[in-house]
């Protein structure tokens, strides 16, 4: 009360030391190392089991030969074209899905009546397994890129749209009010507060959609005869059913897995790089 | 919205509101920074309706620093939101700088209670401060000068590149004040600005408000639940009753300037005033 503690005129709060970065990066490196140890261990186990003659090497060739095959396959022009086809379908599919899902998600997240109106249609369509659409789309569009795209887009739209919707809906009304109090227009509030605030959610949606999209591309290629891509390559090689083609099937599968891993790591890096401010991205990295 | 004459109910003449006033001009004393004219607000309707404020009338002259106190839940924030144009009152009107509020008034900046939510975590300190002027017609160097000066005024020079979540609570609220200053407001509204910081930080921030009040030509209205603070910072204290809130008393605070955390709080006039305000609040608006 009257006897107050001496109050310096300068800021009473001293500068905080820079955030400790080191322990986190060390912990991260340790986690990566442990993860790598697991992978190396599994590879060694596969190698030993295969070479010991416990199983038929036709079904389980040594991992080293699978890996070697995966590398030498790149010399095969057909395989390269197939990988390119899968990648292009994936990239186009993701771009189209984002172009549709993000604006729709923003609108549905901002305007409750729009959400209520769209909900029935969305809930009806969402449970349809994308792959179940293959025969129908094949009938209409044939086995080309368009067919694959339609199905990939259908699969990738939902996670992006729902994450955008929740992200937009989750924007702190307080922050919006702050912007409004400075005379920022309705559209300005969307552009300067709502979208940046929802962005980490959207990117998480894109990451989820991305792994689904890759799975769906390859599945569609596998089941739709005549298509191009890694899945089609696997499907063709399997038909020969000899040791060499078996190796090729495994090598193509490993390639697909690595592709998914690289894409996932890339998006994870983007999330940490650009959305480090977001608590979920900070804590969950 | 039409600028018709505010609802001056017959038989209850407002002080200063001349009945012959031409349409579209503010009631009350000419040149008043803020005129609150017969403002009432009710949330919802029917059984769940909450009558938050009832028939409030007061004026604030330019460069005044007015605190609004009252029992908790007394509609202080409702009143402030009405002044900020974020809420249209159910009845009556607010006039800021001679213009009737139909939305957010020009030249008004607000400092919110919860700094952790009002600052944007994806923007650095300097970009948070530049937020209100980012879309303005000012040139880049002009904007930078405003940001630098505002950060200097709140004692945060050198923290431009930090992010809000890297700063302590008191520093975050300083950033929010700097953001309001960068807007160069004529009217600054503060909604319990220091309710979420510790006591020592609070004293520093109170003195910061006194220093910016002297440095910039601003009218300041702030809501607080801290009785000492309401007297320490203000030229006038408006005491509200329990809801539906009415104006219990409009108290002039004439304490020696410059004010000081130790000597002002020892001043018998200060002690007397804080006691008076406390009694008013504890009685919930009944006469004492």
UniProtKB/TrEMBL annotation, chain A:
Record has Amino-acid biosynthesis as a keyword: no
Biased composition (Pro residues): 1-20
Record's keyword terms, sorted: Cell membrane, Membrane, Transmembrane, Transmembrane helix, Transport
Subcellular location: Cell membrane
CC terms in the record's Gene Ontology section: plasma membrane
Membrane-topology descriptor: Multi-pass membrane protein
Keyword Transmembrane helix: yes
Entry-linked Gene3D superfamilies: MetI-like (1.10.3720.10)
InterPro entries hit by this protein: MetI-like, MetI-like_sf
Transmembrane segments annotated in the record for this chain: 31-50, 90-112, 124-143, 149-168, 189-206, 212-234, 246-270
GO-annotated biological processes: transmembrane transport
Domain ABC transmembrane type-1: 83-267
Chief location of this protein within or outside the cell: membrane
Region ranges (Disordered): 1-25
Family: Belongs to the binding-protein-dependent transport system permease family.
PANTHER family linked to this entry: ABC TRANSPORTER PERMEASE PROTEIN MJ0413-RELATED, ALKANE SULFONATE ABC TRANSPORTER-RELATED, MEMBRANE SUBUNIT
Protein name: ABC transporter permease
Organism: Herbiconiux oxytropis
From TrEMBL, chain B:
Tagged with keyword Transport: yes
Residue ranges, annotated region (Disordered): 1-31
PROSITE patterns: ABC_TRANSPORTER_1, ABC_TRANSPORTER_2
Transport listed as a keyword: yes
Keyword field: ATP-binding, Nucleotide-binding, Transport
PANTHER family: ALIPHATIC SULFONATES IMPORT ATP-BINDING PROTEIN SSUB, TAURINE IMPORT ATP-BINDING PROTEIN-RELATED
Protein name: ABC transporter ATP-binding protein
Phylogenetic lineage: Bacteria, Bacillati, Actinomycetota, Actinomycetes, Micrococcales
